[in-house]
């Protein structure tokens, strides 16, 4: 499987041996959701039909955090709450107060939780032991924070910080649109510009030539590029954001090994993906003048 998005963290310290990581994750694995629980989270094997909570290829690891969550829409809660409120009004001759309504709502939720359906959500992450990266496949900041928080809870020796480079993503991308992209990168046809005014006025271009006078004028009047579509080494296209998130990754003509089974496909994809993406991240950090201390 290929990651489509990269939320990148720098691993600052890792005291313990990673040999114990699978055992540690097993102790924090996903358990069965109780009938009166709304949600539960824990680690699951990232590869199907295996018992290992850490998939390893050379110096690269894949992990997966799962969250099972019951669906309890507010509209359903309010529907049952209104019925109880109306019954109380009919019986007492007055509407329930704020405190009683809160108690009624808690009772409604307690009654509905055991009957609610649940969904399983998965968030995958890749650990690059060579370069010291934790990379999460998500565009959702909350999902990334949940995985990092649960990882720290499971493995306190994992010290992380969000990727921060000496040259900011916005400054660099603006320069690339004005002049040209650095070695290994080409500018594509999508970008977002945002003003420095109070309103933070934003303009988006999709499938549009980015060397037009119109865009150059926007930049001259103070707007900066906050998202930019790029291609790396003629192998991967993606969108880079001002926060150094890599989104919408599409592999381009990357040779895949012949694979007959789902297991072989998983192994092959992970081997190729980690090789290409680790180099992409290294090149990206390089053109942004390295990691800021």
TrEMBL record:
Entry GO CC: bacterial nucleoid
GO BP annotation list: DNA recombination; regulation of DNA recombination
Keyword Cytoplasm recorded: yes
Keywords noted in UniProt: Cytoplasm, DNA recombination
Cleaved signal peptide residues: none
GO molecular function, one term: double-stranded DNA binding
Subcellular location: Cytoplasm, Nucleoid
Membership in a protein family: Belongs to the RdgC family.
Name of the protein this chain belongs to: Recombination-associated protein RdgC
